[in-house]
From TrEMBL:
Gene: 101892679
This protein's record includes keyword Flavoprotein: yes
Listed NCBIfam families: pdxH, PRK05679.1
Organism name: Musca domestica
Protein name: pyridoxal 5'-phosphate synthase
GO-annotated biological processes: pyridoxine biosynthetic process
Cofactor requirements of the protein: FMN
Native organism taxonomy: Eukaryota, Metazoa, Ecdysozoa, Arthropoda, Hexapoda
InterPro entries assigned: Pyridox_Oxase, Pyridox_Oxase_CS, Pyridox_Oxase_N, Pyridoxamine_oxidase_dimer_C, Split_barrel_FMN-bd
Single GO molecular function: pyridoxamine phosphate oxidase activity
Broad enzyme group: oxidoreductase
Keywords: Flavoprotein, FMN, Oxidoreductase, Pyridoxine biosynthesis
């Protein structure tokens, strides 16, 4: 690993990206079905997240790429921070007037991907997003540092602005109006819950025969479960292994 970093530093300007090779997991560290303690993806997600939280090199383990689709049928994605994981799904917070929010309003189908490089692991989530109750958004909003609350109020996320200075002036005006003690009013901002339909757990192997185990909401068609390609899981899920 150190050698790889040195090489990259030495030839930073002209290192061919095609030559970059990171060592992934060895055969004996393969991610196998028998390693899954509870055959249920939310529990497994929490276990993987806990391992990511305990891995020092991963400085923002809850950073996740969120993909949405616009009314024109075109996808776009951006990072958000995952703020809650429950049996119902995955919650992130954002501006309700932003581009992503407009996308979700016209098409609530979303996808999210996390990548934890030091663990050679990635998780993909596909599901349907819905706004969380306003009182829950309000509660979380006021738990954030005051500067972040003011920042959220000052920024009509995704709208065009003339300059950085423009934003600073709005922030200054809000600070003057609120003083030090007035509560920051909730802007057009809040949480989305992604109710998952599919969650894939990926672990990279050095021989490129990566492990991919996908949990899918069970469609209810019994003959689907053959215990060869499709296996029963808990809480209305089935799981299957995909070729890498
Ligand atoms: C690591 C990281 C975390 C982010 N977390 C959030 C977040 O939780 N909510 C959010 O609205 N934007 C977040 N952003 C900014 C978004 O990536 C994006 O710039 C913004 O939400 C506007 O996206 P949109 O115009 O597609 O709606 C984050 C960016 C990064 C790089």
């Amino acid at each position: 690993m150190r050698l790889l970093i040195q090489l990259r530093k030495m030839s930073a300007a002209n290192v061919p990206l095609s030559a970059l090779r990171l060592k992934y997991m060895e055969k004996k560290q393969a991610f196998l079905e028998e390693n899954i303690r509870v055959k249920e993806p939310i529990t497994l997600f929490k276990e993987w997240m806990n391992q990511a939280l305990q891995t020092e090199e991963i400085i923002e383990p809850n950073a996740a790429s969120l993909a949405t689709v616009g009314s024109d049928g075109c996808p776009s994605n951006r990072f958000v921070l995952l703020k809650d994981i429950s049996d119902e799904g995955f919650t992130f917070f954002t501006n309700y007037g932003s581009r992503k929010a407009q996308n979700i309003a016209s098409n609530p189908n979303v996808a999210m991907t996390l990548y934890w490089c030091p663990l050679r692991r990635s998780i993909r989530i596909e599901g349907v997003a819905e706004k969380i109750p306003q009182e829950d958004s309000l509660k979380y909003f006021h738990e954030r540092p005051r500067a972040s609350q003011i920042g959220a109020l000052a920024s009509e996320q995704s709208s065009r602005i003339p300059s950085r200075k423009h934003l600073d002036e709005i922030e200054k005006k809000i600070k003057q109006e609120l003083g030090d003690d007035k509560a920051v009013p909730l802007p057009n901002w809040g949480g989305y819950l992604i109710r998952p339909k599919l969650i894939e757990f990926w672990q990279g192997q050095t021989d490129r025969l990566h492990d991919r185990i996908v949990f899918r909401k069970y469609s209810g068609v019994e003959k689907e479960i053959d215990n060869v390609l499709v296996h029963p899981a808990e809480n209305g899920w089935v799981y299957e292994r995909l070729a890498p």
